[in-house]
Amino acid sequence: MDDVSTPTAPHEFALPVAGLRTGTLLHRSRHADTVHGMWHGVHVVAKRIREDILDTDERAAAERGILREGLLLRRVEHPAIVPVVALIDDPAALILEFIPGNSMREELRLRRRLPAAEAARIGMQLAGALAHLHRRWVMHRDLKPANIIYDGTRAVLIDFHLAKEPGAMRGGAGTRLFTAPEQVRGGHVTTAADIWGLGTVLYRAVTGRLPFHADSGHPQLTERPIPALERLATARFDGDMARAEQELPRDLAAIIDSMLAEDPAARPTADELQRLFAPIAQRDAAA
Ligand SMILES: Nc1ncnc2c1ncn2[C@@H]1O[C@H](COP(=O)(O)OP(=O)(O)O)[C@@H](O)[C@H]1O
Ligand SMILES: [Mg+2]
To answer: In this structure, which ligand is nearest to the CA of 142?
Structure first.
């Protein structure tokens, strides 16, 4: 009765997408609205340019962005990468398979930290997605908890709006605290920048914190990441490394620290990571 004014009321596009029955607005970013909906009987998510953007150039850029994201996503197929259902132009709409679960951002807000075996399993799945992308010469460039959906078993990478081929690029693209130093600076940036991003996500998952003390500017340009185990020990166990190690085994901490190496060439590749995480993911979480 009163549901028209509740936050779960369906989001209406002024220009509807043919075939799409819209549900609730999931997210609004600077350029795009992401809406849950039904598409020929299946649950989907529709990503569409925000209708309140009026500037013509800005609209055109946002439209191109959504089409680019869709075209790129259609070139890849992996269990840990969101599948495309349809890509529509004019006005552009990217229809994606709806992935049930929380964003990892929400998951970490609720659970604060994840057990080592679970974090390693997530790392292995996402390293699989990155290996698939990197083999195709694509970088994601915006690895962060909000761009991962997780249902407690399966992690899926979403949001390819910044994805592009490695090479020379301007600095600054990405999300402040999750971006590799070389990506913040700009210049020649390789797929190793995604390894840093995933490293930051996993670091946060196992310690409950980000790798830096600073909360302003780009600390990755001025500080070295605090080793994960040390961070966990100081945050939780009054500096007692032995107790911290029970939560975060040294082998997992070492992998995550290596993903945050200053020198991109010193970071493991996505293929190597899959192999490194596998035995830790298989360990009994309760052991
Ligand atoms: N395929 C999907 N299934 C379920 N939820 C999704 C899906 N795609 C996006 N979302 C939700 O919408 C949010 C925004 O989507 P995203 O692609 O990251 O857009 P933006 O480019 O605006 O950041 C995500 O953080 C997630 O909560
Ligand atoms: Mg996003």
So the answer is: 2
